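Running this now, will post back.
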Amino acid sequence: MIQIKQIGCAGILFLLLTGCDKRNDPFLLRDKGPQVFIERYADTLYQKNIVDSNKIGVVYQVNVKYFIDEKIPLKMNKYFITDSMSLVGKLLSVYNNNEGESYYSLKLTDSYGKTDSAVLKLISFKNLPPVCFFTVIQDSFKITIDASKSYDQDKKWGGKIIEYEYNLNGMVLKNSLDSINYIFGSKGQKMISVRVMDNDKSWSEIITKYINI
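Update: finished.
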């Protein structure tokens, strides 16, 4: 039996592995016990323990791999779901809406009562703010501001930049363009500030530069 438990939170998932009666089983003394491993989804390394981070609201998945040294047929319950996790085949999906650390203990027990376990530690966060970066190309009174190298720190979890705010010596422009052109009407020192917003409505820090026209 595989027992998957989210420690400290509600919800327990059971994957049942059943076999024939073990009484008078000639393989009992030769049973080496089960083994269970987990790997990050689409990764190639199976481990006993995984520590990873994930954005709240994004499904986290690991593959479950196990071995049972028995000469009896096994039957797997293909699908079972709780409020916070589900197991389809050998793919475990975790749904976590709580910020901070969560532990998921996977315990495998064979029909002889021998056990093995693996643990997933997941650190969940609400959002990582975007980072603003821009360059200024000047040609006399005309400037080109390029903020295309700005990025959202949680891009791998679906984060993206949706708005750019340009402050051109006091005149503020907001749009979805990562690059703009502007012509100043007078000489002197000019202030240029830029910040960006991600799809979670979080703004980056304001970056300011000065140029002389």
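The two ends are 74 Å apart (CA to CA). More later if anyone needs it.
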